[in-house]
Amino acid sequence: MSGKRIQPDGAELRITQIRSVVGQKQNMRDTLRSLGLKRPGNVVVRKADGVTAGMVNTVAHLVKVEEAK
User: Fold this and answer.
1) Which structural domains are found in the chain, ordered by start?
2) What confidence score (pLDDT) does residue 4 get?
3) Residues 6+ apart with CB under 8 A from 6
4) Nearest-angstrom CA–CA distance, 61 and 12
Protein backbone atom coordinates (compact mmCIF):
# COMPACT_ATOMS: atom_id res chain seq x y z
CA MET A 1 0.00 0.00 0.00
CA SER A 2 2.96 2.34 0.29
CA GLY A 3 2.83 5.17 -2.21
CA LYS A 4 -0.95 5.02 -2.51
CA ARG A 5 -3.44 7.28 -0.81
CA ILE A 6 -5.03 5.49 2.14
CA GLN A 7 -8.82 5.62 2.21
CA PRO A 8 -10.74 5.71 5.52
CA ASP A 9 -12.58 2.39 5.16
CA GLY A 10 -12.37 1.03 8.73
CA ALA A 11 -9.87 -1.74 7.90
CA GLU A 12 -7.04 -2.59 10.31
CA LEU A 13 -3.75 -1.16 9.08
CA ARG A 14 -0.29 -2.34 10.09
CA ILE A 15 1.93 0.74 9.91
CA THR A 16 5.72 0.29 10.01
CA GLN A 17 8.15 3.20 10.21
CA ILE A 18 10.83 2.57 7.58
CA ARG A 19 12.73 5.88 7.56
CA SER A 20 14.10 8.17 10.24
CA VAL A 21 12.68 11.60 11.05
CA VAL A 22 16.14 13.17 10.98
CA GLY A 23 16.02 16.07 8.55
CA GLN A 24 12.22 16.00 8.28
CA LYS A 25 9.93 18.92 9.07
CA GLN A 26 8.48 19.23 12.56
CA ASN A 27 4.94 18.37 11.42
CA MET A 28 6.24 15.04 10.05
CA ARG A 29 7.91 14.28 13.40
CA ASP A 30 4.72 15.17 15.27
CA THR A 31 2.58 13.05 12.95
CA LEU A 32 4.75 9.95 13.44
CA ARG A 33 4.69 10.47 17.20
CA SER A 34 0.88 10.79 17.12
CA LEU A 35 0.70 7.48 15.26
CA GLY A 36 2.77 5.93 18.06
CA LEU A 37 5.97 5.49 16.05
CA LYS A 38 9.28 6.45 17.63
CA ARG A 39 12.03 4.94 15.48
CA PRO A 40 12.49 2.96 12.26
CA GLY A 41 11.27 -0.59 12.66
CA ASN A 42 8.44 0.27 15.05
CA VAL A 43 5.03 -1.14 14.13
CA VAL A 44 1.53 -0.06 15.18
CA VAL A 45 -1.89 -1.39 14.23
CA ARG A 46 -4.59 1.23 13.78
CA LYS A 47 -8.10 1.42 12.30
CA ALA A 48 -8.25 3.20 8.95
CA ASP A 49 -10.52 6.04 10.05
CA GLY A 50 -10.36 9.55 8.63
CA VAL A 51 -7.78 10.81 11.13
CA THR A 52 -5.42 7.86 10.73
CA ALA A 53 -5.72 7.93 6.92
CA GLY A 54 -4.79 11.62 6.90
CA MET A 55 -1.79 11.08 9.15
CA VAL A 56 -0.54 8.13 7.09
CA ASN A 57 -0.92 10.11 3.87
CA THR A 58 1.11 12.95 5.41
CA VAL A 59 4.08 10.69 6.19
CA ALA A 60 3.62 8.16 3.36
CA HIS A 61 7.30 8.42 2.38
CA LEU A 62 8.42 7.45 5.90
CA VAL A 63 6.13 4.45 6.53
CA LYS A 64 5.05 1.16 5.00
CA VAL A 65 1.35 0.33 5.29
CA GLU A 66 -0.13 -3.15 5.05
CA GLU A 67 -3.57 -4.48 5.82
CA ALA A 68 -3.45 -6.31 9.15
CA LYS A 69 -4.58 -9.91 9.01
Assistant:
1) 9-63 (3.30.1390.20)
2) 65
3) 13, 48, 52, 53, 56, 57, 60, 65
4) 20
